[in-house]
Amino acid sequence: MTVEFAHAEAFRFLQAGSGYADAVELEAHFRRVLAAFGFGPYACVRLNEQLPQQDPRVISSHGLEDWEHYYAEQGYDSADPVRRWYKTGKSFYSWGQAKAWNARLHEPANDEAMWSDASQAGLNEGLVVVSNAPGGHVLLTRIMTEQKSIRPSDRAILDSVAICFATWRMRLLEQAGDVNTVNSLLTPREAECLRWVGQGLTDYAIAEQMDISPSTANKHIENAKRKLGVPKRMQAFRRATDLDLLAP
Amino acid sequence: MIHIVTTENRHLYQRQIWAMFEGRRQSFVERCGWNDLMVFEGAEVDDCDDERAVYLLALNEDEELLGAVRTRPTDDLCIMADKYPHLIAEGQPPMKGPQVWESTRVFTTALYRQTRKKGEQLLPYLAVAASEVAFDHGAERIIGMGDAEQWANMSGADDMHLTGLPAPYAYGVMVGTYVTLSAEHFQRQYESLAREVRIGYAVEDNDIACFGSLAAVQEVVDEAAKLAPFHNADAAREGRLTEEARGLFDERARAIASIEALYARHDAAAAPQSGERILRMFKTMTAAGDAA
Question: Whose CA is closest to A145, among A68, A66, A61?
C-alpha cells in the first residue's frame, strides 16, 4: 500500500473523531490504519503494579500467543488482548507519559534484550500506546512492524492515531458500561481484607484476624480501593462483591 | 466576563493588555519552551499583534487577567497558512482569506489556575467568544493550531475538523483545526455551555462613564446575561407555568431586583443615560440568541 493511502486512512481515522458507534468499529478502523502503515497484529500487557516499580521491559511479536509465552517466562501477570483494555478516572494518557515510557523502554539495559527478541521475530519498529487501568495498573500496547524504520512525519501521525485510539476507546467503553473490562487483580490478601471489611471490622480487628499489622491491613484495603476505583472501603467491598472478586 | 478588546477600546485595558503579553511570555516561552518567539521587554509579541488583532480577555472581579486569546482576520497574515502550510491537506477549504479568522495564543494565567473553582472551564468560553467576534465580522470559518495530543479530546466538539494530518514541529507534534461558523453552531455551543446568551462583550467609553470602572461594567453585564434568558421568554413559555417555570420566574424577579439595585447605585453617580446603556446591554447580550 502507498504512503498516500496510509495517510488518507489515518486522516479519515482522526477526522472521524468521537463519531464511532462503538469500540468494535473504532478498533476495526484502527487496525485498518495500522495495516496501511504496514503494522502487524497488536496485543496489550497488563502489569501487576505501577510500571515505574517494575521492570518495564515490553516485547511484542506477531501474535498474542507469543506474548503470553513470553510473559509466562518472564513472570509477568498476564497478557490481554486489547479488547479487554479499560480504565477509570480521567487522566490516563499524555504525550509526556508516552515520552517517559519510551525513554524508559529504551534504557540500554532493557533495550538490548527487548530489541534483540524483537529482531529475532523479524520486527524492527513500533509504537507504544500507554494507558492507566483502574487501581493504577499500567497497560502497554506495543504495535510492531517489519519496516526498518518509520519516517519522522509518519511517527507523528502514528503517535497521534495511537493517542486518539486510546482516548476514544476508553470513552466508548465507559459509555457502554463495559463490565467485561473490570479488573480482577485483587490479591488474595486484599480480597481477604475486603471480606473482613464487609463484616464491619476495623483495621485493628482485621489485623488480629489475619495476624498482620494494622498498617499492613490498611495498606491492603487502600490498594483494593485504588484498584477498584472507589473512595471508600465499604464501596470497595460492595463493588468487589458485585464483580464476584471475593470468592475464596 | 470575557471582554472584547479592539482598537476602539484598547485604551481602557492598558494594564490588562500588558498582563496578557507578559502572560503569553510566561505561558509559551517559559512553560512551553517556545524559545523562538520574540520577547520585547518581558512581553511576547509577534507580527499578528497589530491593529487588526482582537483580544478576548477574561477578567475577574478585580479586573485581573485570567486568560486570553487573540483572534484576527487572515486575508493578510495567517500563521497556519503562511508558516505551517503542511498542516493543511489537499482538498480542504481555504484556510486563508476574507471568510477565515484565526485564533492563536490562547492561554490561562497562573492566577486562574490557582483560583479556579472545581469544574470551572475558561478555555471553551474563550474559544466561543473568539468565534463570536469572527462571526460578527462575517467569517465562515475560524482556524487554530494546537498540540496533537489535544485532538483526542477536542474532536467531539461541534463542527470542529482537522485541516490535515498531525506534523512534527520544533516542540512536539502539532495539528491544525477549523470550525465552521453558523447560527446553529452557536446555538449548540451555548447549549453545551449551559448559556443562553453570547459570551463576549465590548466595553465602550460610555459604559465607563455610566458605571465608573471595568469591574462595575462587568458586574452589570454579568447580571444582564443572567437576566437575558428571562428577558427573552416568549408568551408560550409564560403560559406554561409549571412548578419549574414558577421557580424560573421567581429567579427572574430576583434578577430584576438585582439589576435595579445596580442601576440605582450607579445612576446616582453617573449619567442619566445609564438606563439606556442597560437596555443596550440586554440587546447586545440577547442578539446571539435572537440570531440563533
Answer: A61
The set of cell numbers assigned to A10 is 489515518
- Give the predicted TM-score (pTM) of the model: 0.67
CB atoms < 10 A from the CB of B205, how many? 11
Q: Residue A234 and residue A201: Cα distance in Å, rounded?
A: 11
Look at the alpha carbons of B282, B20, B214, B7 in this order and tell me if their dihedral is positive or negative.
negative
Task: Tell whether B145 lies on the interface with A, counting CB pairs under 8 A.
Answer: no
Tens of pLDDT along B131-143?
999 999 999 999 9
Of A7, A15, A153, the CB nearest to B162: A15
Contact partners, residue A111, CB within 8 Å, separation at least 6: A105
d(CA B204, CA A195): 67
Q: How many other β-carbons are positioned within 10 Å of the β-carbon of residue B153?
A: 14
B177 contacts on A by Cβ (under 8 Å): none
Q: What CA–CA distance (Å, rounded) separates A134 from A188?
A: 18
How many other C-beta atoms lie within 10 A of the C-beta of residue A20?
A: 19
Task: Assign B202 to helix, strand or coil.
Answer: coil
- Could you give the ipTM of this predicted complex? 0.71
Q: Do B155 and A18 touch (CB under 8 A)?
A: yes
The DSSP secondary structure of B34-53, one letter per residue, reads -TTS-EETTEE--TT-STT-
B88 shares contact with chain A (CB less than 8 Å)? no
CB B165 within 8 A of CB A159: no
Residue B179: its pLDDT value, please?
Answer: 93
Partner-chain residue, chosen from A11, A17, A159, that has the shortest CB–CB distance to B156: A17
Report phi then psi at A39, rounded to 5. -90, 155
The reply to whether residue B166 touches residue A18, judged by beta carbons under 8 angstroms, is no
pLDDT in tens, A57-75: 333 333 445 545 555 555 4
